[in-house]
Design a protein that fits this description.
Blueprint lengths: L16 H8 L2 H26 L1 H20 L1 H7 L2 H25 L4 H10 L1 H8 L3 H17 L2 H6 L2 H32 L3 H28 L5 H26 L4 H7 L2 H14 L5 H16 L6
Helix pairs in contact: 1-11, 2-3, 2-12, 2-14, 3-4, 3-5, 3-11, 3-12, 4-11, 5-10, 5-11, 6-8, 6-10, 6-14, 7-13, 8-15, 10-12, 11-12, 14-15
Length: about 300
């Protein structure tokens, strides 16, 4: 890791509670928890779309995360003590989170969750390739890519017509935008984690506050309709905790110990976990090709070995 200027957020800091927590468990375990909740929360969100609206659910997700992080990470203090460069990084990550979560839900409203997850993984392939230096890891990546390709049923997509095709194409646009923003999230999220998990989570809390401000004019009007139904509000809060608090914290715990390329490669697990969760929560039953794709992805992840940072 290159030396950083004193004002850089990547400069090592004394280990805090979260840094010690990150070191107590293998980073792959933290990623595993994140992978499960990465789509468990959104699968519940899909069930709320008819009642709250797609962007309303996105607002609940980000607002809940911002409120949960605020008393713990004290984002106002982080922004106050930050340099101009650090503030720009936090604002960029906040804008990325707001746009990514909104695009993600707009894609889920039109496409199966496993397909959205597969497209999300495509953008991370370049990040993974950047740091994969062994034949074993290249083989692992090849298996994962083949598996993800099987999860994207291009034949069924090309065979659609009329309104169905238009809906699919719009959904693919949102899914592709989400995938591109997901790559940016990996880069920026890994950047804020380099000083250790404790500092990374503090910066994540500040970025989530910025994301809340960015998403306010987009989703608040839809979310407002749910405030007359306490159960809908509680469900929205649950989606936020499952979708943005647990997985993003676990991402920081993993990112603080994994090279960026290895973290990007592990994201191949997401289409597999999305397929499983889609079956359990949404009743989206995969075909034989989907199951083969899941097996290939999990095999690739199993044989991958992280390279040195």
């Amino acid at each position: 890791m290159s030396n950083q200027a004193p004002s850089d957020p990547a400069i090592p800091a004394p280990p805090g509670v979260m840094s010690r927590t990150a070191a107590a468990v293998p980073p792959q375990a933290w990623f595993g928890v994140s992978a499960v909740f990465h789509y468990l929360g959104p699968s519940f969100a899909v069930l709320l779309f008819p009642a709250v609206g797609v962007l309303g659910v996105a607002w609940f997700r980000i607002a809940t995360a911002a409120l949960v992080f605020a008393p713990v990470t004290r984002p106002w203090r982080t922004f106050r003590n930050a340099t101009y460069r650090e503030r720009a990084l936090l604002l960029a990550l906040g804008a990325c989170l707001a746009a990514m979560n909104s695009a993600f839900y707009l894609a889920l409203d039109r496409l199966p969750i496993a397909l959205v997850a597969a497209i999300e993984f495509i953008g991370t392939i370049g990040v993974a390739l950047w740091g994969l230096r062994t034949g074993r890891n290249l083989l692992a990546l090849a298996l994962a890519v083949i598996g993800v390709t099987l999860l994207i049923d291009m034949g069924a997509l090309l065979g659609a017509g009329g309104p169905a095709l238009a809906s699919d194409l719009l959904g693919l646009f949102w899914a592709a935008l989400n995938g591109g923003l997901f790559v940016l999230y990996i880069i920026l999220g890994h950047r804020i984690s380099q000083g250790g998990a404790s500092g990374g989570i503090e910066r994540l809390g500040a970025a989530m506050t910025a994301a809340f401000l960015f998403v306010m004019p987009v989703g608040f009007i839809q979310a407002l309709d749910a405030f007359g139904a306490p159960l809908l509000v509680l469900a929205g809060i649950g989606v936020g905790i499952c979708s943005s608090v647990i997985p993003y914290v676990c991402d920081q715990l993993a990112m603080s110990r994994l090279p960026r390329a290895s973290f990007a490669f592990l994201l191949a697990l997401l289409p597999a976990t999305a397929t499983i969760i889609g079956v359990i929560v949404l009743g989206q039953i995969p075909g034989a090709g989907d199951m083969l794709g899941v097996v290939l992805v999990m095999t690739g992840v199993a044989i991958h070995r992280p390279s040195e940072p």
